[in-house]
């Protein structure tokens, strides 16, 4: 077994994201990058290839990070006469 085959795909993806310019295109054969959306594909089955434009991969990654943030709203405690453990504290609501 070759050493390159032992490197998980996400490590390869992180390295490519860090080092390639926006104008670069990555072509993968047999196995796609699971977290990237291909710009185009060609073939089927074992003969399939996926092309990824780095500018689009980075844009999608930024959008995914932005949309995955969870907003938390804090409200004053609704019951001021509730148990001593919750007096004066705010409750988090999703």
Automatic annotation (TrEMBL):
UniProt keyword annotation of Transferase present: yes
Start and end residues of each stretch annotated as Disordered: 75-94
GO cellular component: mitochondrion
Keywords recorded for this protein, A-Z: Methyltransferase, S-adenosyl-L-methionine, Transferase
UniProt biased composition (Low complexity): 77-87
InterPro entries from the UniProt entry: FAM173A/B
Gene Ontology molecular-function annotations: protein-lysine N-methyltransferase activity
BP-aspect Gene Ontology terms: methylation; regulation of mitochondrial ATP synthesis coupled proton transport
Keyword S-adenosyl-L-methionine in annotation: yes
UniProt name for this protein: Protein FAM173A
Organism field: Anas zonorhyncha
Lineage: Eukaryota, Metazoa, Chordata, Craniata, Vertebrata
